[in-house]
């Protein structure tokens, strides 16, 4: 991915965020992916990666700062989904915090809106069906997910989409991807190299795809 | 459940709907539950139960007719969730149809809104946390679910909540409950008697509960 | 279950055993089932039920005492299987202890034989396919399982079958049944009443069935 | 893995077998792994790989031919385990065929012994705990499994261990490894490259390990 002569002027930015480990775990594959992707060039864009605190509120404040600072063309937030076996392209963010466990600052909100008075949900503005197809063609386990949960991942996803719905962000796309555990964390899992490769493919596809494709990837229930 | 002296004047109505079998299956526990609950008295309300076609569009048209006809105080739609092990109280309906399999009329919409131009989602207006607690106290497997899928169940759930959001329906509550397979359909499953008992408890709780309780029942992802 | 005129002389005995709670849990459905079944008459047999310690070695010593004392015609050991959604009729006991967690006495053997020098495995001598059919016909979730694990349940199952293989026990049948969690323990689960009803049906079927039926109930892997 | 100067005389042989696709599937990752590993040198041994028919009886006849022809030092049979998320090191083969679906020749035996009159089970003679550790250290998803099912995989595994129990095969080790689906087959799955890498590590570890290590890897049930 290194290039001898980086394009000049500076290429547009893809903002990629992972999360700190949480729930007593020692690692979070999304933070390791952020480390690996930071500074890479993908489809003419430079990846700026950061690790958000796994904390309600503070995570979103940090994301807002990053967006203001880097003015990205695309924002991909990434979180760990223990128990999932595939790279999960999230379809929808919902306006509720309902925490089964405390966040990394000890807060455990129950049935509180992410943004009071805001819409019940936002759909991802990433071309998740095209991304699904690209991942599957690369031989990687991938799926569209109908829920990002109600913990900090959904919180950040919702806050991101609410921000990008403001007039100043026309044309900036964003969304959330959940990734499986590392093998050392339990089963099901995905080797880190496969996950990083998948994220690179997902970003490249999102940058290259104008209108999403039609591909059934719903859930019966 | 005996009703030697039915109250007079006629008690208010709870509208309960199940679905026809679909996906090649011979039975649908939600239809059997509708049959069992029809006509029962629960907490001073009379249950009117019906079985909706598992068909995009037609299911909602039928539901609208039933609502107009019976003017229920509460609407509980119920569907089968193969692969789930507990009675699932659905939190949110999303504005998308994305069918993995054809419905019973052969239609298979992909990424089509349930109602064009309408909000991305509606939250259930049932007290799902109080219902969760009531089911658990009765020794029945129950959970709050963050997604009702993108097939006909979510379609009906979304259409119901969109209708109930109209001014004429102030105070009418509604939501969706997913129930596990019958033992004959596969595993995990729940005996039909336990499912029906659970639905009765859920309805009674919804009728008796004004403001929902605070009880963590979210998902990490 | 009524027994106005208990048969005289004393009816033959079915020995049923559950286990103490383990792994930090407050309850074990197999112990509750033992409590419920103790003293019942099933198909002309009297159930003698006991709760074994969830301890390698001591559990088997206690089982041996019970067998010597009651000279049962049939022995059904029963244990809890967290994570299973159906009543599991175990096919085979293997000669190994490999404990992921300590037993209730703090022991955690790894790759130690249950009985040194004894065969690698014994098959259940219960008619598990007929029992499967009986449970399914009663609308209860049931399955044949190809592994009873490597903890105290398998230990007791292996020890039981090794004992019953001795010449003095010709005609005495035995086996192990795993049952799901109670709803309060997590998901998947089964209401206690359904589990007890299933055990009663399983015992009655085992007593009534001479030669097992042919019914495919294997696993692909 | 290529070596400029292959050792002379010819290196000892590791026999690796995969299976034909079955159950209506278009591919079987174990056959692709066989293709990839054939001819490779691992820890001074040459891999001879073959694809067995997914047929009761014929698979074992072919395995016997291969063993006679190549006189391997180690035999690793490999099969696909749809639904498993990790490379599964099988602990025990049981003496029963019980097929949920027909094999590739249309046969569907129920509760028939693999070898009439032979022991109920054999344990793998591979150092499965050391192999588990080696896979985990390489960041690959791995587990010890307590059942290889009752279909053709277990049939071949049992037949292999029964053969290796004969006096002429002292010192020849053998066992079975189950591998997850390819991503194109469904979820959970593992990219083919990760699976092949894992098999190479497993073989190298088996060749390098005299006595297995003590490492808890049992199942509670």
From TrEMBL, chains A, B, C, D:
It catalyses: Release of an N-terminal pyroglutamyl group from a polypeptide, the second amino acid generally not being Pro. It is found in: Cytoplasm. It is an enzyme of class 3 (hydrolase). GO terms for cellular component: cytosol. The keyword Cytoplasm applies. It comes from the Bacteria. It holds the Pfam family Peptidase_C15. GO terms for molecular function: pyroglutamyl-peptidase activity. Removes 5-oxoproline from various penultimate amino acid residues except L-proline. This is Pyrrolidone-carboxylate peptidase. It comes from Ramlibacter rhizophilus. The gene is pcp.
